[in-house]
Amino acid sequence: MSKKHSNIKTIYVRYFVMLSLFFVFGCSNTKYLPEGDLLYTGGSVTVKDSIIKKKDRKELEKELEGLLRPKPNKQILGLRPKLWIYNLAGEPKKQKGIRYWLRTKVGEEPVLFSKVDLDYNASVLRNFTENRGYFKTRVSADSTVRNKRVTAEYTLIPKKQYIITSVTFPDDSLKMSKIIARSSRRSLLKVGKPYDLDIIKAERERIDARLKERGYFYFNPDNILAQVDSSKGDHEVKIRLVIKPDTPPKALTSYKINKIIVYPNFTVSKDSVKYTRKDIVQYNDFTIIDTANTFKPRVFDRTIYFKKGDLYSRKDHNLTLNRFVNLGTFSFVKNEFKPSDSIPNSLDSYYYLTLLPKKFIRVEVLGKTNSASYTGTEVNVNWNNRNLFRGAELLTVSVFGGADFQLSGTNNGKNIYKLGTETSLTWPRFIIPFFKVAGSSEFIPRTKATLRYEYQNRTQLYALNSFKGSFGYLWKENIRKEHQLNVFDVTYVSPNHVTPEYLADAEADESLKKVIEKQLIFGPTYSFTYTNTMQKRKKNTFYFNGELDLAGNVTGLVTGANVKKNDTIKIFDVPFSQFVKLKADFRHYLKLSKESEWASRIIVGAGLPYGNSGALPTSKQFVVGGTNSIRAFRARSLGPGSYLNTETTNNYLPDQSGDLKLEFSTEYRAKLFSIVRGALFVDAGNVWLLNADPNKPGGQITKDFMKDIAVGAGAGLRFDLSFLILRTDLAFPLRKPYLPQGERWVLKDIDFGSGPWRKDNLILNIAIGYPF
Questions:
Q1: Do residues 256 and 313 touch, judged by C-beta distance below 8 A?
Q2: Which of 180, 419, 516, 696 lies 20 to 30 angstroms, CA to CA, from 349?
């Protein structure tokens, strides 16, 4: 027998033994049960009704099964490994050690049938269905025992669902009744729809929210009574909404804002604020009691939405609180409304603000991509100074260092290290000369100025000094939409310590020479981000980021620069770059269960050099491969197109880049146990050149560009340490675009038992955070 077949046989034997042990372990769970008790393995609900459509019936059954308590032990492939680990660990003698950790953190105690109350679950199911309009529902419960395991079965026989035939709103003489009537077209109660108690509750809350925008501060949903009449018609109900007769008079009155008092130095531990007359500052409609003269008064004018005489509005109330929080200078924000003692039907508004420490240091460990498209782990140490000029500004001074690495059996090229510093100053407002622009959302708009220096060293090859400055604006429309516009963004890159070996290679390859050329890039940049991934209960969530980079456009137009006519314009003896670059990153997350999801991403990018530039600067070109890209290929080693990236005479792999990019990734993520999560993934993509390069045959984009797509797959473990996520992904190629046509799919060559194959194809990616 060959060594290859022997290895395959060994692998199969190991899998068989593991599955056998797993099965035995799963079967052994019941022997640890208390005497006379049974293992509860779950419950099912059957709805017997010929009127309800099959699809609706199945959805109702699934919804009802989610109400059953307790939940059974978690299963994987029909087995209960967490329960087996709990039993295997046994009773720990101490509240520490490996046995205690396995039993309490990894394992899961058995869910016993003695804890299941069939009658209680039946009543929960009955109440739920009746609240949905299936009045007089009958529910029966039973159980089935097999091999010390028991399941619960619930049978539900609903009556015909009741339908709403009319909805009537308050029609008395109260002013609020007229407000409610005018909003009736937005009512959640619709004629022809089924009766649903949850919808009635939601309608009461909708009405309350409407009234809160009209000054009715003391009103609440319980002041609305829903009268339901089911005495007439065939399974029909009439709903009448009325204001309860015992509603307090103050709940029937709309209120205006009178005084607005702000305490910027409030201390939570103290019951009252001690101050003197000189501490009181009157600014517009506000009374500011700032004992330490901490802020300029206009900070509060920009933050508080209420003005004296305004009708109370919950929207303005919440917007103000959110804006105080988003200033980033307060650890505690409290708002209190009190009836005015001088003006009837008015409220005095008090804001109690507790300051965060003015200066602080923060250390971050990040998985990050820098301006030159190098991806790796970075450590940042940030020193921050809040409220620098008494206007809630934030000064941040950072020093950082990082490295980019992948591990594989073959040469990965020279290691890349970087270090640098960055200083930024952020103002909580738009700063636009000759214009006054106010934000209108709950999020504070910001103006940010940044200066950055980065030293990047590719060992034994070259180093790059990068200087960057920017000035721009950041603002959010809402929690989902964010914009960033840099009206001034300049980058200057110069080489340093270029080795003779690299210079020799650069003489033979023009693309290597471009890496160490001086670069001057300036122009506006804009990015837009949309995401709803913070909505954890949604099954489908999305993320989109679009970027636009316009470099040297106005300058090129004014000077008439044209590289094709050898009319290149230089600034400080460096040709400035002129190009348009677009990039779009779209991601989709499908929630499969509480502990698993399917995540996908597609990236499309294009850059067009013109005028003063014949090619995109190296730092702005697109690359693929690496820890956050196509993980089965070494970082920046793929493409362009079908070009084969070979080692230079000095034994390293030069970076490969292109003007166009297409990349797709999809992965299944699931929690395995404790802090450990697993993933299975597939990545695909490539980069291409707009124009042919004689040194890179096959690199230009063509109509058959899809034939140049690289594909890789793999599996990974992610360790969620709460403060960071450590990721290890093991990947291998499925399709190599640089092989001859007809030979690019390499599925038949996969041989995990072969040392040479593993050395040439397996790549271990170690990174911080998820790839997307």
A1: no
A2: 180
